[in-house]
Amino acid sequence: MVDFEFKEEKQSEAIVITIDGPAGSGKTTTAKELAKILDYRHLDSGALYRTLTFSLLSANVPTSRWDQLEETDLEGLKLQFIPEGDCIEMYYNQRKLSSELRSPEVTDNVSHVSSLGVVRNWLLGTQQMLGVHGGLVADGRDMGAAVFPEAEVKIFLTAELEIRARRRLLENIGEEISKEQFKEEMIRIEERDLADRSRKYSPLIRAEDSILVDTTTLSFKDQLIAVRNIVKDLTGV
Ligand code: CDP
Q1: Which of 76, 78, 103, 158 is the most buried (most CB within 10 A)?
Q2: Residue 143's domain spans which residues?
Q3: pTM, to two decimals
Q4: Is residue 200 part of a domain?
């Protein structure tokens, strides 16, 4: 993780910045660090979909029922998304969630949950409300194209599949990666990307007015600097 020695002065004209892209492109880490630099709040929208997935699994709602879910079922899960400091915390049954949201079980099921129209509708207003006063860096799959179409800066991050799989494994299990694990992770990421790109509601697409940043050959630090510079060049923020 980059340790920036300085935090820039809080800006008066707080804007919304969206960072979208496929799994492992570095959206969430970049968005989180960028929000820190600007003294903005970070919205990790993937965590909302993961929270819903975790809750459905915890409440033992069978996956065969997910396609029939209605808004009242989602409300019945008693989830809370609460802005706290520079991020949004997720609660299920009054319990704050963190590492459980990235369990393999949640990861393997989240694309199913996020493909449901009822889920996307239900989460849309919540996400938009969080950006009402600006000062937000939101990352996900449809932040620029659907949730914040008026965002002042839209970034689309991408990187080659092999690189994204390697980064994800480094994050989850460290340097010792077997060929088997590498192959499995590539397949897992590819399947999730395909599901996210081909779903009916709010698929992963690059917003027309977004700026593409290919991070294949960039270190995390360089990636963050590139994104930070785009924001500065476009808006002066
Ligand atoms: O971090 P990673 O790229 O693995 O995924 P994430 O950002 O935590 O998102 C998990 C899943 O949530 C994605 O694979 C999508 O299916 C879904 N998602 C979505 O549909 N729309 C968003 N705005 C964010 C995430």
Answers
A1: 158
A2: 2-228
A3: 0.93
A4: yes
